[in-house]
Amino acid sequence: MIKSGSNLEKILNKGIFAVTGELGPPRGADINAIREKAKHLKGMVDAVNITDNQTAVVRMASWAASLIALQEGLEPNYQMVCRDRNRIAMQSDILGAYTLGIRNILCLSGDHPVFGDHPFTRKVFDIDSMQLIAMVKKMRDEGKFLNGEEITHPPRMFIGAAANPFGDPHEFRVLRLAKKIAAGADFIQTQSIYNMKRFREWLNQANDMGLTEKVYILAGVTPMKSLGMARYMQKNVPGMDVPDEVIKRLEGVEKKKQAAEGIKMCCEQIEELKTMKGVAGVHLMAIEWEHRVPEIVEQAKLLPRPNPQDLD
Amino acid sequence: MIIAKIKPLEEIKTMLKDFRRVLNVGCAGCTAVCLAGGQREVDIMNTKLSLLFKEEGKLLEIEGFTVERQCEPQFLAELDSLVEEYEAVLSMACGAGVQFLAERFPETKVFPAVNTTFVGVNRDIGWYEERCQCCGECVLGITGGICPVTMCAKMLFNGPCGGAQDGHCEVDKNIPCAWVNIYKRLKAQGRLEQILTVFPAREWKNQVQGRLVLEEYQERYLNQIKEVMTR
Fold it and tell me: What does the alpha-carbon distance between residue B139 and residue B170 come to, in Å, rounded to a whole number?
């Protein structure tokens, strides 16, 4: 049964290995900044995540940037975090976003304000990411607001959620995935994977529990731009698991060639992910590197992407 | 109990700059226990402020009086004949005490000497930790005695988030992850199933000013409540 009719949903339903990208809105009111990034991603990915004030730094609203992406011929995956808005604002934004053509939503808790540019703002967290998933599902499947009242024209979103196979406690991560599926997630985008061994363990658990039959898992990958980036991610990014082998491999090439090596590693990883049972696609987070996406998807043999018109 | 911290002296000095005769009211309740506003702190505060004013060539006649608790009318009554002798009152009680004092003496200018910080516990002398945010609907029975509203930086009911690593919270390596601890405790107690189902969106019961009149007392206070409301 079609839930939202989004391009991403159709591709996943057809069993085509999906590719999603990421686009961070600008820290200003510059429409061209989004158009420029969108230009590189068009035809390269099936949908693109539009981040919602990522790392708790003020940026253009994710719904607004999603609409611009839509105008540019890219299907947005509208990210919404629980940090900045209560249930009234969230439901209102979902109605608005759906009305204007947004069909995918990624439900997240959001980075804590202390990481951002307004560390002493008042955090909201009225509901958490799990409850947000359940709320969007209730709006879609029951046609009701969180309070149980009828919605005259319910928004029909394809519901995404995040999963981190590398967080604590390890044995609980797959159980939390199960909770997100029970709450109503249709697809999952994982944290950037560098520790393939650990990812495989998590995926095997998910397969054994039958979870991959119930949800589409898009494996997260982020190409390393440099050795410096790899070291930073290993030490400073919460919930990130960068094994020493990754660092060593980048140490082994001269500085000028590290970006190419990072892309090569990423593509090898994608090739491996394609063969893994339970992986329905990849989520390519080329952070502030949108212009390198075409060569990555090319090199990873992910082209051509299916034409949305051919999916019906 | 309620934990408070003495405000910076400069801030208190600024609040009191236009007054000469000031009464500093201590509280022998919570703020005395957390070494912020008891008799001892009142004495120290008065000495410091007097000196500070003196250095600037100003005279501050500040006297202290500590009541048992500023959040109870019978103890505040001890101040009834005292307050009018002063131009201003400094209170070393928590925010509740300061307000109750100000309510009793509406003509008097009342100033807070402490910042009320949280409801917490006394880990050791001079060491306090937050434990409750008074959300109005306690879930500690489900979460193994660890509060997700207070102890999780994102107030998650379905944690831990993806940022938990090595058992600590992503906001600070010195803060344990509440949900890792909830998981461990429930697992050890054999009741992990309590957090395997989705905890639904909850109703926040603390969105309007709290007032609790026990059912058995409602008749007794019926008229008084109306009187307080319209005061």
Answer: 23
Q: What is the CATH number of the domain that holds A261?
A: 3.20.20.220
Sheet holding B2-6, edge to edge: B2-6, B114-124, B127-132
Q: What is the pLDDT of residues B50-108, one digit of tens each?
A: 999 999 999 999 999 999 999 999 999 999 999 999 999 999 999 999 999 999 999 99
In this predicted structure, what is the pLDDT of residue B164? 86
Judging contacts by C-beta atoms under 8 Å, the chain B residues touching residue A131 are 157-158, 198-201
Closest residue of chain A to B182, computed from CA coordinates? A169
Which value does ipTM take for this structure?
Answer: 0.95
What pTM, to 2 d.p., does this model score? 0.96
Q: Does B189 touch chain A (CB under 8 A)?
A: no
Furthest-apart CA atoms within chain B: distance in Å: 68
The token duo for B216 is 């058995």
CB atoms within 10 A of CB A235: 9
Residue among A125, A146, A175 minimizing CB distance to B155 = A125
Q: Residues of A with CB below 8 A from B167's CB?
A: 168
What is the domain-level CATH number for residue B93?
3.40.50.2300
- Domain interval for residue B70: 2-119
- Domain holding A237, by residue range, is 7-311
d(CA A16, CA A283): 14
d(CA A263, CA A270): 10
- A-facing residues of B in 145-184 (CB < 8 A) are 153-167, 170-171, 177, 180, 183-184
CA distances from A287 to A54, A222, A281, B93, B107 (A): 11, 7, 18, 51, 61
Only one residue has tokens 């026990």, namely: B214
As a whole number of angstroms, the distance between CA A296 and CA A271 comes to 12
